[in-house]
Amino acid sequence: MSHMHPDDIRTLFSRAMSDLYRAEVPQYGALCDLVAQVNEAELVHNPQLAQRLRRQGQLDRLDVERHGAIRLGTAQELATIRRLFALMGMRPVGYYDLSAAGAPVHATAFRPVGDAALDHNPFRVFTSLLRLDLVADEALRQRAQAILSRRRIFTPRCLALLAQAEGDGGLSAADAREFVAELIHTFQWHHEATVDLASYRGLRATHALVADIVCFKGPHINHLTPRTLNIDEVQARMPGADLLAKDSIEGPPRRAFPLLLRQTSFLALEEPIRFVGESGLDTHTARFGEVEQRGCALTRKGRALYDQLLAQAQAKAGGARVPRAVLEQAFAAFPDDAQALFQQELAFFRFQVDAARLAQAAPPEGADVQQLVAGGWLGLSPITYEDFLPVSAAGIFRSNLGEEVRGGYGSQGHQAAFEEALGAPVVDGFALYEAAQASSLAACERILRATCAVGSVG
Ligand code: OOG
Ligand code: NI
């Protein structure tokens, strides 16, 4: 029997998640409509951008491009999520330590890897795991553990289909549809808590995240984020669409050449919850809306410079929100055009052979890639950043948990423990971008070699 391709199962899944969230959170629909309007206008105003996105095959994916976020309670849940997402071609990429920023979780991003899968549908899920080792109160820690060990977040049918798919090496189209429908149940919202109000309050006093993870039947999806081509415009227009935007955009400042990832969100909904043993309703805030603009992926060197400049701006702001002017000033030290970024090996690019330039003159024998780019034989296109930023993630967490900005748990990343829970190592994001750049260069090299006498470019 033929199997549905994992990329196609992922598309079914992202569509089903989007439908679920649209039905549960009306503001999500409003935000998606706003983003669609802004993107359409941006493509009209910026034909160069439109042309590049079309060439890179990113125009088609834009309308469906989303990321979601979930928060898990146990190692067992995380290991099972890894296996479930693997059926849809989603691998755990990167390790994010949120403890330094005051959230008792660590995380990875499940996403497709490889150009073809990303072009098909880049659906990602930022997936956090609770770190009870950071909860100081021994009694609370044990209580949380006991509650979590009892819950079953996956339907039996979902687990049966997982086992079947792993045995058969895939799912038929009919089974894939059933699989997605079953899996969606895991991420639904529940109006009933699994604990009484006193337990909820006790856990909440430790950290709002702990309560959000421990007190419910499952890991409700807490946001689903569309991708915009102009986040400043979306931010400016959110109030007009009745969306209560957080006061600043996370990530790098606005640039001629967009870097990494900029995000903003609207504030979480206060939702009615019934606690065990209560006849009336109380409330909990977890779900919010977010929008993002994706820029170019940075090399390790570029990322180190980014982190350094951001820390510099934050130090200048002295713990308060970083004013836009301060951020822009700090980032004046970051080159803002493709040529300089490539020359200084700060960002990742794909290359295209410029046929017109080649017709004019052949590149010198033995030219390296820097010479080919500088001489105009190879054009540069940014490789889109497909991952997340822990500092931004922490800012998003904070603005939506009703948390006062509190100190961190110190820097206590624990990647080995995370990978043990996951049951696999996380994939190194830098290696993926390096491979994408290298394969693009190899393709250009073949064209150049066929056209003229250019040896190996390196
Ligand atoms: C995850 C926040 C991280 C992002 O876009 O950085 C995230 C969460 O609130 O559970 O989604
Ligand atoms: Ni997000």
Task: Tell me what the structure shows.
The chain has 458 residues and is of the alpha+beta class. It has 3 domains: 6-297 and 386-426, 2,3-Dihydroxybiphenyl 1,2-Dioxygenase, domain 1 (Roll); 298-337, no CATH class; 349-382 and 428-458, no CATH class. The longest helix has 23 residues, at 429-451. 48% of the residues lie in helices and 15% in strands. Helix 2 (26-45) packs across helix 3 and helix 10 crosses helix 11 (208-214). The chain is built from 20 helices and 12 strands.
Give a quick precis of the structure.
Helices cover 48% and strands 15% of the residues.
Class from secondary-structure proportions: alpha+beta
CATH homology-level superfamily of the largest domain:
Uncharacterised protein PF07063, DUF1338
Could you give the count of β-strands? 12
Alpha-carbon distance between the termini?
A: 45 Å
- Strands of the biggest beta sheet: in what spatial order? 2-3-4-1-6
Q: Given this structure, which CATH class of the largest domain is correct?
A: Alpha Beta
SSE map:
Layout: H1 6-24, H2 26-45, H3 47-55, H4 59-62, E1 66-72, H5 75-86, E2 91-97, E3 105-111, H6 115-120, E4 124-130, H7 138-150, H8 156-168, H9 173-186, E5 192-196, H10 197-206, H11 208-214, E6 223-226, H12 231-237, E7 261-266, E8 270-276, E9 282-285, E10 289-294, H13 300-317, H14 324-330, H15 338-343, E11 349-353, H16 355-360, H17 369-374, E12 378-382, H18 390-400, H19 415-422, H20 429-451
The structure holds 2-oxoadipic acid and nickel (II) ion.
Nickel (II) ion is lined by residues 67, 69, 126, 223, 225, 290, 396.
